[in-house]
Amino acid sequence: MDQPRFIQRLPKIELHLHIEGTLEPEMMFELAQRNQIALPYTTPEEVKAAYQFTNLQSFLDIYYQAANVLIHEQDFYDLTWAYLLRCQQDNVVHSEIFFDPQTHTARGIDFDTVINGIYRALKDGREQLAISSQIIMCFLRHLDEESAFSTLEQALKHKNKIIAVGLDSSELGHPPEKFARVFQKALEEGFLTVAHAGEEGPVSNIYDSLELLKVSRIDHGVRCADDEQLVNALAKSQMPLTVCPLSNTKLKVFETMREHNIVDLLQRGLCVTINSDDPAYFGGYMTDNFVAVADSLIVSNQDLAQFSRNAINASFISDSEKQRLHRYLESFLVGEASFS
Ligand code: ADE
Ligand code: ZN
């Protein structure tokens, strides 16, 4: 079977997806009209033309502004539901999604409005589309510790809906130690932890996320390649890296996909996974990310399947759910082998 068709049908698990990053320009216009919000663009095409980024910050500036169109619980529901329909097209069977409460609470939107809209769509996704999911709440690292503590406080009554806390936004100048105390409190409250580290920032952010924030996964982490000892330690511990290939080329972490180190890290035995990060901004969803890797780097179908195996192992689901997904993936692979 040809590789694009294999990729399309391959069962996929997404572990690094910002729900605010799934806001397509068409929906941005729809919500702006519905909520009477002025946009600095006149057409969705104009919006797309503005997506020329030079680094992470140049993206974040546009991304936070776009989130202003999200006001009501139904807006968060519609956003999440549209993403789930894309998951269905790409055969994503499980997704763990980030949301950034501070992006919304800073504009006067209630925490409850945000999480209730997302949660209701995910519940419908489980029931109607058979897509399982988890929610991860991220702290914005450009804001202060006090704001993060207040966000954690607001999350406590939604503990049953949130599996983990994470750390995102501008990595340079905002190291993990700034959030060591709030992550400690989150761990005491029973949340798992993850953090963006080694996307643009130095290797020390990966070490500190492991040591100070006690993370269960590193988001991005591609800069680990700067430190041979760290690469070996990540391979040994099977600490997962949630890598986002199209994001990394769009934000110039790598100039081209041919220079991306994801396949090299996979072949060195690291638990690397493929994810879409902010697909409405970076040129594609899960299938597009797998295709982009396969088009520019040398990977076998077995390698591509290994990304899905790694993602199952790295996910925040029960062992029995992991076994179920592994069985589903392996039976797909047996079926594919008998066709080729
Ligand atoms: N928020 C949304 N996407 C992000 C990324 N790639 N890095 C850091 N923060 C983000
Ligand atoms: Zn991200």
Spell out the blueprint of helices and strands.
Layout: H1 3-9, E1 12-18, H2 25-34, H3 44-49, H4 56-66, H5 73-89, E2 92-99, H6 101-105, H7 111-129, E3 132-140, H8 145-155, E4 164-168, H9 180-188, E5 192-197, H10 203-211, E6 217-220, H11 228-237, E7 241-243, H12 245-250, H13 262-267, E8 272-274, H14 279-282, H15 286-296, H16 301-314, H17 319-339
Parallel strand pairs: 1-2, 2-3, 3-4, 4-5, 5-6, 6-7, 7-8
Helix pairs in contact: 1-15, 5-7, 16-17
The protein binds adenine and zinc ion.
3D structure, described in words:
The protein has 340 residues and is α/β, with parallel strands linked by helices. It has a single domain, classed as Alpha-Beta Barrel (TIM Barrel), CATH 3.20.20. It has 17 helices and 8 strands. The chain has helices at 3-9, 25-34, 44-49, 56-66, 73-89, 101-105, 111-129, 145-155, 180-188, 203-211, 228-237, 245-250, 262-267, 279-282, 286-296, 301-314, 319-339; strands at 12-18, 92-99, 132-140, 164-168, 192-197, 217-220, 241-243, 272-274. The chain has an 8-stranded parallel beta sheet with strand order 1-2-3-4-5-6-7-8. Strand 5 (192-197), helix 10 (203-211) and strand 6 (217-220) form a beta-alpha-beta unit. Helix 16 packs antiparallel against helix 17. It starts with a helix and ends with a helix. The protein binds adenine and zinc ion. It catalyses: adenine + H2O + H(+) = hypoxanthine + NH4(+). Its EC number is 3.5.4.2. Pfam families: A_deaminase (PF00962).
